[in-house]
Fold this protein.
Amino acid sequence: MSANDFNRPFTKAEMDAMRRATRDGGGVLADAFALLRRVARRIPFAEDALALYYCARDPMTDTRVKLIVLAALAYFVLPIDALPDVMPLLGFTDDAAVIATAIAAVRGSITDLHRRKARDTLETF
């Protein structure tokens, strides 16, 4: 994958999927939680993704922050991916990059409570 691949315009299918995801924030969160439940033991960024999940569900979280988080979690759950998740070892690297970027963008909004809930949830998976 070259740097130019990240500069290409989105396809109609990709745009439609993103529009559906942003209209249904609750559905994105439910899908993200279900996917994390299935793959949490195989991905090193599961705790970070869950912390984002709890940040987005927090009523005290700013709307702008929620939109950033929902976009990152939507990328994580949508089948449209730079690297397909079924590829061994590499499949989740693009997802990890998106999650890391979202965390960097909203770092101040992720509280200790969000992180603690993420750790507690991982223990139950």
